[in-house]
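hey so u asked for the seq, here:
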Amino acid sequence: MRAVRSFLLTLRDRPALIAWAMFVASLPFYVGRSGLPQPGNALMFLALPLALVGWDRRLDTGVVRVFRAMVWFSLWVLIVNWGWSAVTGKFSFADYAIVPVYYVWNGLVVLCAFVLHRRYGDLFLRATLYAVLFDVVFQVIASFVYRTDLYRSELFFNNPNQLGYWSLLAACTIALLQKRLQLGLVKASAALVGCAYLGVMSASRAAVAGIAILLILLVFTNPRVIIAGIVAAILLVGVGGPLNEAINKSSLRAMKRESDTTFAQERGYYRIWQFKEYILVGAGEGDLLRFVDDPKRANEIHSSLGTVVFSYGIVGTILFVMLFVHLLRGAQPRMIVLLVPVLAYTVAHQGLRFTLFWVLLALFACLKVRGPPK
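ran it, structure tokens below
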């Protein structure tokens, strides 16, 4: 508590960091429909201007390359979606037109993160970590009194998969920053157990599998955290409450297939080879009735990789791969493996619009910067 109190005192004359931390802490709280701006998003319109004031207009070379690659990919997303909107005559904001907004928005979030790290260094990283830790603790406590579904919990999100994905991203964020910021063993272990608990509560198979992969990887990269985490997990299970019920339901769901279709059919991968005419420039992320006969099956591809390949073609895939090439270049292997659980999750879900995903990538890029800001 003394460390937290000391940290809060350092934020008194740094309003940009306060606004950023509040923005990150607001991400798990949905009020409106998914895909629409949430009240907490307004904090970014405060954080970004505050971050830019006093910035020396410089960024580390590696960070610039990552951001530039993201800009190029976002530009291609805009060209493809708005291009198809013009071709098909569908100008609804709920169709093609809104998709580029997600990427532009997350691009601004990444820019804000890079600028704040340039200005404040590890203090920015600590503000982000504490915001995530606050959310983990708050949601774990809330889960005992705020029940949204007897089968799959969603807490303050709009659906259980969002809670599961957020839990996985939060766990990876904590694991990524723990060593750099010297987060205590007990705190880090308890936080990871809290993330695993929330993932189990969501009954998201992909999220639980991703967190399990992360814990396995931590056995080799930081075994002490796992040992302490096992102790914390045993204590949490002993408390009972919603966890024991969630474990049983998650186990049943993990063994149950919802249909007789293959994974490729279930997740929409089949469109890549069934509609080869889109392979070069992509089909965009709108007008899904082009690909199905039954309107009830007009769903987006449930995969980030599948979405990039099908919706943005060879050109978009190259741009997206270049983004990760710049992101991973020069990173330590210990850091790289911590992204594996998130990438594994996105094989079965479309997670590119989730802001915490881009925050995690921004933190990854910032951790490669050596030393304090110049």
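The radius of gyration is 21 Å. The CA atoms of residues 95 and 287 lie 7 Å apart.
lmk if thats what u needed
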